[in-house]
Amino acid sequence: MVERETWATRVGFLVAAIGSAVGLGNLWQFPFKTAANGGAAFVVFYLIAVTLIGFPALLAEFVVGRRTHRNVVGAFEDLGGPAWRVVGAMGMVTGFWILSYYDVVGGWVLRYILGSATGAYFDDPGAYLSAVASGPEAIVAQAAFLAIAVGIVAMGIEDGIEKATKVMVPSIVVLMLALAAWALTLGGAADGLAYFLSPDVGSLVENAGTVIPDAVGQAFFTLSLGMGIMVTYASYVGEDDSLPVDGGVIVVSNTLIGVLAGVVVFPILFAEGIDPATSGPTALFEAMAAAFAALPAGRLLGVVFFGVVALAALSSAISLLEVAVSYATDNTDASRPTLAVGAGVVLFVLGLPSALDTGDPGGFSAWFVWFDALAYNLLLPLSVLLVVVFVGWVLGRDAVAELRAGSTASEGVAAAWLWTVRLVVLLGIVATLALGFESLFLAEDATFFAPF
Ligand code: PFF
Q1: C-alpha span between 5 and 430 (Å, rounded)
Q2: Inside any domain, residue 213
Q3: Does 3 reside within a domain?
Q4: Residue 358: pLDDT above 60?
């Protein structure tokens, strides 16, 4: 077995984990899920879900990874015995499922950097999206996106992931701040911000049945939970790091960048009179592209905007590839580059249905929506539920000891975390699953049956 690597520095771990958390979930999904769920009302639920459910669950994943210093499957086996391998396996499956369509969207983003530079979509943003979203163009772009991610992971934890994310994450923050400052000068700024930040309590209550599972699913997705990622990243962390502090830094940074994404996207859409609620998943591509086509210096702004999105998507994709590579490294003698390429090829094949599906004219195929709905409503909550049951009810006191190692958290604070995991997080996920189940299988237009 090859000797296990570690992060060179604590900051290295932090930026890598923030890089994983900040991704298409923040920049693409968060704005359109907010729009689909009635604007600011969704943001409120989302913030509650991140704080009460996402943060404690993140710490649960950290505890498993650092206690064992193993890959995600081996970690659960070490702590609970062979039967618990299923939790790690579930995380890997969920992660691959998500990355299989995520990398297709990543490919589109690369295409849009080019399209912005050349102005290719300026005449007809809708037609451009249809042209690049599926078929051979999408496959080539998906392959390019995966190739970059594979290249970074192949170079290792310290020389690949840590070095790359140390450049990527600060660039994302600086460029997003610059874009937000510019977006706030646009004519649509006041309306855009009002839409994003002033909740309509009536619609919140009325639509709770769909808003809650979407908000909780979004909290898991954005924190990269339920995919083995945070277990794996924490397995390279030393005993003297404070997991609660690191977790807090990651959650706060990720949330701020999500909010910043809204501050960028909504003023731009409102400035061009585009209704976010009707643009759906295509908002980032079609609607933002339409806005860049109309705004002064649109080419430059388009390159910067889609460049930021690409950096964010890549720093997330590498974290997921690392889950598989770490598993294989722990179990075989094959070299890291070979394993990284192998994982890339598997993902490429899994992504083909999403990349090939011509779908509706907006470019968003039934398959795509199906993959996404299943991930949000079923796989992610189920996967996190298993982690939470294990950490809360099986590991119990050991989890508390691990959380406290390297931190100044008192016994009382750590016990409060354990009980939050055992009850609040657990019940929150069960409720989410029940509601998600309803919209997937039972509702009149149940998503699960849609593509068939
Ligand atoms: N936290 C990531 C995001 O918000 O985009 C989630 C993610 C998706 C991570 C896909 C990794 C990945 F491959």
Answers
A1: 37
A2: yes
A3: no
A4: no
